[in-house]
Amino acid sequence: MKTPDESGADALAIVTPKGKRRVESGHPWVFRQDVQSGPGADALTGGPSLVTVMDPRGQALGVALWAAASKVALRMLTRSTLPAAPGRSGRGNDTERLMDLLRGRLARALAHREAMGLARTQSAFRAVHAEGDDVPGLFVDKYAHAAVVQVAALAFEPLLPSIAEHVAEALSVNVVVARNDTSMRDFEGLPRKDFVAWGQGATTVRYRLGPNELEADLLRDGKTGGFLDQADNHAFVASLSQPGGRALDAFTFHGGFALALARRASYVLAADADLEASRRARSNAALNGLGHMEVRCADAYALLASLEAAGQTFDTVVLDPPAFAKRVGAVAAAEKAYHELFVRGLRVTAPGALFVCCSCSGQVDRALFDRVVTEAAATARRSVQILARRGAGLDHPERLGVPETGHLKCWVMRVL
After folding, report:
1. CA angle 89, 95, 100 (to 5 degrees)
2. For residues 105-118, average pLDDT
3. Which of 92, 191, 293, 326 qualifies as a FRET site for 70, CA 20 to 30 Å off?
4. Percent of the chain having pLDDT more than 90?
């Protein structure tokens, strides 16, 4: 590898031996405690926080994004060097080099989705999945004629206008919305803010997931407008559901699982504790002519308790709650919350019926989730078959050795 002088990068970060091992293992994150020394503030003035990473002996390990205040101080971009931008020098050169890298990796990510048929067959999909697509801290979703960009890395913040413009061109959309309200920005010391980053088109869009059409306001609705990571699971669960049966989706948001299940079920009860989300789910049911889909604004725990008390059971039960553990310190409370939720869900699941439980908590890994589900089944005194342990769809690739890119767990089971 070239030395920093040869590669044109002046800012340096020296990692500890532990940090070096982490880089060499292929994980893109180096934590702050594993950085021996970082660049001075003057080295980063006027450009993105781009640094050359070196080991304690002065051996260059690659190029990374630097965030001094973040727990994740370094996000590796490459184990090699970034080519210099012609006619540029200093931090301006860094800006162009980083944009060149982003353009190339966005093109690669889109090519992969095109090869899988996603870009041709779906009007909504994730175009860039941050570290999963080797673009640390950047998410891009496409919804029909619009796109959503979410930045979770300090170095990309000053580049957002250029990123939005390029995304608009690459995805052929009319408007790009910045949904920078994620808690991940807190770790980088970035403010939470949502706004139209490019274009002047409407931010309320209609898009298709399988046979259903959904509407979302990309600027004001939750998440980036929808839960695209569950799209494949909507179709899979619906394909296994009982034709003419009764289905329950207790955390429906805009109706994802419920709409898919309503294509086969005779009755679907969809609920969400958020009033606006439940209104959106109700309008999406009407949009698709699914009059047998009932939508309630209700707390899932209270709803399940009332259904059990009334002796009601369902042929498909889906429990897809919001993240209960976004931080390590929340794991114990999350275990308890999942356990109670799944026990209540199992008690309204009919014999022979499908029981689907999910977790998008990054701090709850697959092994822990498996244990929680097993213990819930034991408490509910139900015998349960595992049909499939699933994750997110193909547009949310999980990078080998980087478990943070595979946060979603979706266990599809049958109750005996």
Report:
1. 105
2. 94
3. 92
4. 78
| Pair of tokens at residue 30 | 């180096």
- Does the active-site annotation cover 357? no
How confident is the model at residue 4, as a pLDDT? 45
Could you tell me if residue 218 is inside a domain? no
CA distance to 102, 314, 340, 373, 399, per residue, from 379 (Å): 49, 19, 9, 10, 35
Predicted model pTM = 0.92
Q: What is the DSSP string of 250-298?
A: TT-TTTHHHHHHTTT-SEEEEEESSHHHHHHHHHHHHHTT-TTEEEEE-
Q: Which amino acid is at 87?
A: G
379 shares a domain with 309: yes
For the segment 378-389, the average pLDDT, to the nearest whole number, is 98
- DSSP character for 138? E
Q: CA angle 278-280-282, nearest 5°?
A: 70
H/E element holding 40?
none
Q: What is the CATH number of the domain that holds 140?
A: 3.30.750.80
Q: Are residues 110 and 41 in the same domain?
A: no
Mean pLDDT of the chain: 91
Percent of the chain with pLDDT over 70: 93
411 and 373 Cβ atoms separated by less than 8 Å: yes
Query: What integer pLDDT is reported at residue 7 of this predicted model?
Result: 45
Q: Is 90 helix (H, G, I), strand (E, B) or coil?
A: helix
What total number of domains does the chain contain?
3
Helix (H, G, I), strand (E, B) or coil at 306: helix
Question: Which is catalytic among the residues 357, 358, 360, 410?
Answer: 360
Among the listed ranges 4-18, 73-87, 306-320, which one has the minimum average pLDDT value? 4-18
Residue 10 has pLDDT above 80, yes or no: no
| 282 and 379 housed in the same domain | yes
